[in-house]
Fold this sequence. Notes:
The chain has helices spanning 16-29, 35-42, 46-58, 75-87, 90-105, 149-156, 161-169, 183-196, 238-258; strands spanning 33-34, 62-64, 70-73, 108-115, 120-127, 135-136, 144-145, 199-202, 209-217, 223-232, 281-282. By secondary structure, it is of the alpha+beta class. The chain starts with 15 loop residues before the first helix and ends with a strand.
Amino acid sequence: xxxxxxxxxxxxDGSPMGRWITVLDAFLRQDEWGVRELALATGLxxxxxxxxxxxxxxxxxxxxxxxxxxxxxxxxxxxxxxILADRLDVTRIARPILQRTTARTGETAILCLYASGRRQFxxxxxxxxxxxxxxxxxxxxxxxxxxxxxxxxxxxAFLPRAEQDAILDDLPDPIPGLRPISRLQLxxxxxxxxxxxxxxxxxxxxxxxxGASAPIRDATGRVRGDIVISWPDNRTxxxxxxxxxxxxxxAGDEISAGLGYVAGGATSPDAGSAAPRSGSVAAEPG
Length: 286
């Protein structure tokens, strides 16, 4: 990769370890590299690139690719990546962040995960509000649709455009629900949410419910789910919705960072209806 004007990209860290990280980062963007191509793409000296690639090959971090002079990810690096990924438990990382979010906001914070094969989500954990009127988040443990409420839209708004379009194109027009809406209007709402980094919704799944949500991404930039802050509409206002939307976005960013996501980096894009408990309202965030 050559920058405008023929400039080579700047190296963030010229130390030996920094150069190794630069080379490894390149293999997140492309499966195979040759010495000359990688040197141009990273800004590393060609001699240093040659040395690092061959050192990594000797250590099984890289392996010779099909074409002569090309390198790909090697068996040791694959093994290490798989073991570390298996240890990266989203719930474990998110739990203290959910608790801090609820402590700061006074409202229930919920972790939802996305099943891309089903194009649905489900809730896996929550830190509950101490308010006597709160949400029964467990009703979100059932499969939920992405186009309804902040819990779903906090995922849908941030999916890759092709994936989002495929989901929206399968919906009827207008889309039925407590608040019927055209597909065009829904797309506009999702675009607005995507631009500000969080979703706010009102009474789309259950009357009287408000929610704010923001996406959670993994190290590859893939949307893994969202964090949802939920509260009843008798505690809402435009200022409160702004405050909790920003809080959801901050919590989502913190969980994403714990999963290895780097914003702007090389890899960076059925709900139940349980009856309310005494003093509670049903658990849809928005």
